[in-house]
Structures are given as C-alpha cells and as structure tokens.
Amino acid sequence: MRAAAFLYPWDVVGDPDAARRVADLGVQQVTLAAAYHSTRALTPRHPRHRVVTARHAAVLYPPDAARWAGRALRPYPQEWMAGPDPFGEAARALTDAGLEVHSWVVLAHNGRLGAENPAVAVRNAYGDRYPWAPCIARPEVRAYLRDLAAEAATRPGARGTELESCGWYGLEHLHAHDKIAGVPLSGAARYLMSLCFCEVCEAGYAGLGARAEDVRGAVVRALEPVWAGAGGSEVASGGGRAGEWRGVQKLLGGELSELVRGWRDAAARTLRREAVAAVRGAAGDRFPVLLHADPAPHRCGANAGADPADVLADTDGVVVPCTGGDAARADALTPFAQVRARPAAPDAPVLAANLTIVTAMGGSPGTLAADAAHAAALGADELRLYHAGLAGDGDLAAVRRELAAVRRNTARNSVA
Description:
By secondary structure, this protein is of the alpha/beta class. It has helices at about 10, 20-25, 65-70, 85-95, 110-115, 140-155, 185-195, 200-205, 210-225, 240-250, 255-285, 310-315, 325-340, 370-375, 395-415, and strands spanning about 1-5, 30-35, 40, 50-55, 60, 100-105, 120-125, 130-135, 160-165, 290-295, 305, 315-320, 350-355, 380-385. About 45% of the residues lie in helices and about 15% in strands.
C-alpha cells in the first residue's frame, strides 16, 4: 500500500535531517501543509525550536498580490517562519530526499477570516457567530475558497493536493481554552448547533419552502431538553453515522430535516465542484485532487461530510478518518468502497485510510500493519499517517517497523 505522512513546513525548514528521517520511515509521499488553520504544534526533534505557534490561519507561501488585490476576503501570510516561502523550501528538501510532495490545503476553517468579516461566518439558531466557520453557502465565501484552492494546491513542487474542510464547518472546533463540554451533545445535537441562519441560508430555506423563523424555532425547541439536562435519550445517536441522522430526523421531523439537508448538501456540492475545477484549471487534469471526507453528508468539520457517490465522481479520491477500532474503520470506509466497486464507478479513485500515529493523540502506531491490513480488506488502497512531525521518536520507530511489515504483506499478497 502506498503510504503518505502529513507534515508542516516548520517540521522540515531549519532541520537538515528532517527529510531523510521521514523518507526512512518507508513512506512514498509527504502531504505538506500549504494553507493551514491556527495551531500550536510540538516539534520534538527540531534543532532550533520545540513549539511553533501559528497564531492565525495562513498560507505558508507568498500569496499572489495581484490575485487578491482589493478583495475583502483574502489569505493571510504566515508571520512565524523566516524566509519568503516555507512550503517551497520544505518541498524542495523532501523532493531531494526522494519523496513525492502533495499540498495540504485547509479551506473553510479560518478564525481570523470570520473575526475580521463576521457577516460571512456561520450563525447558529441562537444568533451566535462561529468565526472559525465561514458559511459556504455565501457566494463571496465560495469565490474566496475557490481561488485559495487554485493557488495553494498548485504550489511549485507539488504533484497533487488534498483539500481539507472543503464543506461545512460547525460547532466543533479545537478552540483555545475550550469550555463547551459542560453539557454533553450527541451527534444529532451537534448538527443542530451547526446549522447556519445567516441571511443567505435563511433565503435558501425559504426558497425550498420553509420559513427561516420556523426552521430556527424548530431547532431551538428540539435543543431545549439538552440544555435542561434531560435530553440524553431523546438525542441519543447510537448506531454510528446512520444513528446520528435518525436522531436529527427525530428532533426536527423528517420533512424539515430533509429540507435543511438538501440546502446544505447543495451548497457543499457546489463548493466542492468549484474548488476541484479551479485546481484542475490551474494544474491540469493529471494533477490528482483528493478530498478529506466523511461518508455521512450531515457531518461537519475537517473531514467534510459528503455523499460517497458524489464525492468520488467529483474528485480523484478521498482521505477518510480511520482512527479507532475495526468497527469505526468499517463505518468510515465501507460506504466509499461500495461506491467504488460499482461497475459505473470512476476509474480507480483513491481510497486512503487516515490513521493517527501519535500515541498521545489517540493513535496506535504499534498496530499500524494490522490496521492497514484491515483497511485494505475494507477496500482502502493507500494510507495517510497523521502526523510525522508531531510524533515522538518511539512512535516513529514503531511506524518504521510496521510499514516494513505492510510492504512484506503487500508483496506476499501480490505473489499469491
């Protein structure tokens, strides 16, 4: 199985051993951040620093001034690394080490953008803004994200791209000093708290036959038992992704939940197709475009919820979150694998299983070979390893050992 590791440019720039160290893991590709959200990241082996604080969402290359001149929504350049083009510098070092570099582009997740332009942020049923979540139903947001995808994905040195957050973002966000866990929320409740009621979305609901105030009122009423502490059984979401959606239908009613989902699915599909077309227009059809995706269209976040048939028709493949046990992995991969197995499916779309390799972040690098074999049995043909820059030495040693076992297993299977 082809394997790729995620990296940030600051994992490589300034560390002359970084590229070789990653190549020695046994991966063939690095998925390197070109546009990324704010973060605080450990760099456990870097000779010059241990913690990098990216204070806001930024592009990790010099943005094209002419492209963005006069536009209210534009990418912010990074300010925490020396040199004009950290992505380019890291990409060259990785390529020189024999690794293929693909860009990693975060789209609809940008806290500074929403803070400085609050009108474009998702607004929930209570009127609260989520500055980290630009509303993708808004034409000006889609125009910004489309151009960002075209620019960030096709950096010199990149042989392909992976688009993260190419869809709806919502309530869930790894926020600094987060304090929203006091009341447990099921998947259904999190979805209701992620619905947008900006003027564009309100007009969208109305265009489909539901008054915005009626939709908002239904959401608020459905959530009242949660805030009262008596909503556990009513919003239970057992049964994985399908159970979450049944919970939404129970809370909102079948007709209204389908109407809202129809509006949101159409907005996400439009963004996805526009972003992919923009990348292909800039780089050509032979430049692979993968989407970080979840097979449940109602889900929000980094792995954008999407109908598996739609996303595999629109892209060259998907990167699917697969950390967890066998059941969680099957729930995530099987819907995509079933579509790919259809006779009319697109030619060989990639199905990459994304496995966390940082033990302290819930990963299991010591079982990587077994987890990869299970993912392959479910239909995955590639691996993504999150995250080679964050992992400690012990985790990387386990990855090196386990990837060697993956190669041996692959060789045996090909002979058989």
